[in-house]
Amino acid sequence: MIREKRIQLIRKTLVNKMEELWSNAEITLARMKKAEGTLADPFDMAVTESSRFVELACRSREIELLLDIKETILRIDRGLYGICDSCGRLIHEKRLCIEPMSKLCMDCQEEKEIQNRKKNGNWAMRGMSHQHG
């Protein structure tokens, strides 16, 4: 089982990352509000809108990361950190050190990836049969 000291270090790292992401999001929102309505040229407006779209897409991924971080911190606080969501066995400490937000042990993660590959492979095959049918 992973030691409490290591868990608290992981928690502290996650809290710091969460604060950094929130700070970046606030800066982005402030910058977008400041730039709003300042461009009269349609070309400049199009470039700005394109940049805004890319920025929001990046922030969307960061929001997903924030949610994962928050969930991991809650798991730590509730004493559930390091327990596989699927089988209930302990997740190996090395795995948690490499991927601190892991919710699955290696066996369950591998099984999930196999299932995803099968699902994606079946979807791709269905797409091919429609094209050539």
Which features would summarize this protein structure in a list?
133 residues, Four Helix Bundle (Hemerythrin (Met), subunit A), 0% strand
Explain how this protein is built:
This protein is 76% helix and 0% strand. It is mainly α and 133 residues long. It has a domain at 4-81: Four Helix Bundle (Hemerythrin (Met), subunit A). It is flat, with a radius of gyration of 21 Å. The termini are far apart. The relative contact order is 0.11. The model has no long low-confidence stretch (mean pLDDT 84).
Shape: flat
Low-confidence regions: none
Biggest sheet details: none
Q: What is the overall pLDDT average?
A: 84
Q: H/E series, N to C?
A: HHHH
How would you concisely characterize the structure shown here?
With 133 residues, the chain is mostly helical. It has a domain at 4-81: Four Helix Bundle (Hemerythrin (Met), subunit A) (Up-down Bundle).
What is the strand and helix layout of this fold?
Elements: H1 4-35, H2 42-77, H3 93-98, H4 106-132
